[in-house]
Amino acid sequence: MTLNDVTAISAEPVILNSTGTVDVNGGDFKTTGTKSCFVNNSANLTIDKGSTTDGTFVSEGASCINNSWGQVRINGGSFTTDADIAVKNCGGLRLNGGTVEAPKGTAIDISGESGDVQLNSGTIRNSVTGVRVADAGDSEIDLKAVTFENNTDDISLGKDQQINIKKSFAGTAKIRVDDPARGRQITTDNEDLSYQNKLKLFSMNSGYIIGYKRDANGVEYRYLADANGNIVNAVNAKATADLGAGEQELDTATVVPENTLVTVTANLPEGAEGAEFLGWSVSRVDGEALDWTPARDDPQTITFTMPGCNVTVEALYQGGNGDTDNPSGGGSSDVVTGSSDVVTGIAAVALTGAAVWSIYETGTGIYRVLNMPGVPMPSNRAGLATLIWEKAGCPEPQTVKSFSDIDDADLHLRQAASWMEEQGLMDDVKENEFRPYRYVTKLQTCLVWDKAKEESLIS
Fold it and tell me: Helix/strand/coil (H, E, C) string of the chain?
């Protein structure tokens, strides 16, 4: 049966479909009692726009669609209810377009084992809960290019439930689970090209964020992680910790809770083959000393207990085929290297002792005492650019660039970064990216300072 642009008002279901096939194109349906507009039992139902109407379907006291072991395809139209659920699905469902909303409840409820569900497109909006998944068993539930708008929770997951969020999902999703716990998996495993770390997912469970994990076999997923913690900035090294989902690599977006055991392993910078490992630079942002322990048989691996502040751990190298002037391994795209005399002097100090980090500090310290008395050491690229530019008298650059990662309103930093690039002291990390908060070492600062002095840019 096919209905085209039909108007119907009823206290009973407008469509009661059992074992048949019904196509509804547009129209205006409304049920005023406690029955759904569409009741689909082991049948096929397709809803689309009509030739003269988009399709408006409203149920006052029940769900708009009640699907039991049938197949429902929603290609267009709007579905609204004052009841708890707008689309109640216990079968196969394809959402390919249209809008669904339940201001007092759940827009789409997927409860009990059913056919596979693909939420491919369309908008789910103005609801307490956008999509609810509970007791779905082995049912495959895919979320693709759906848009969520103005829902309290976009996705609600019952105990042990997961959802397969595909790469085509480009929006944001607020997710709440019935059983929050550290390490609780949210998305199903994915072995395609890495993308889940780019999904914009936010936890609605207090005390948690949605973390990301990718294991050695390339399997990735999202999970609940502690919201309270700090970051580990590993330079020329790989930091790992168990945040509830097993041991995983940390990046500067990973929150590490206090008292978590962190393992850091030196990682030779790309292109620096043959470089000699010197030792470790380990520092806390609060300036306090951090206790760390080297592995018994491997000085290139250390462990420490995460404090209540950010930590920077740097593996120091000397020599090799790469940027030997730069123990941070930033390369030419990071900070332009300076005088070989400075490097030779510091390297000579670094090669004469056993306590490597102490010697590294001594080497850079000697240079700073002789050449930079009273000058504070910047911790990132923004600070380094500003330091040199201000020391040079804040000269006007030929062109004040716009960087994608610097606020246009921050004219001071944009001028400093533009001038430093024009003088060849610092380079773009990527086109139109300056990476203002990337870490710089004391040696990098000394090298840039020395090059600026050699070119008479500063006194």
Answer: CEEECCEEEECCCCEEEECCEEEEECCEEEECCCCCCEEEECCEEEEECCCCCCCEEEECCCCCEEEEEEEEEECCCEEEECCCEEEEEEEEEEECCCEEECCCCEEEEEECCCCCEEECCCEEECCCEEEEEECCCCCCEEECCCEEECCCEEEEECCCCCEEECCCCCCEEEEEECCCCCCCECECCECCCCCHHHCEEEECCCCEEEEEEECCCCCEEEEEEECCCECEEEECEEEEEECCCCEEECCCCCCECCCCEEEEEECCCCCCCCCEEEEEEEEECCCCCCCEEEECCEEEEEEEECCCCCEEEEEEEECCCCCCCCCCCCCCCCECCCCHHHHHHHHHHHCCCCCHHHHHHHHHHHHHHHHCCCCCCCCEHHHHHHHHHHHCCCCCCCCCCCCCCCCCCCHHHHHHHHHHHHCCCECCCECCECCCCCECCHHHHHHHHHHHHHCCCCC
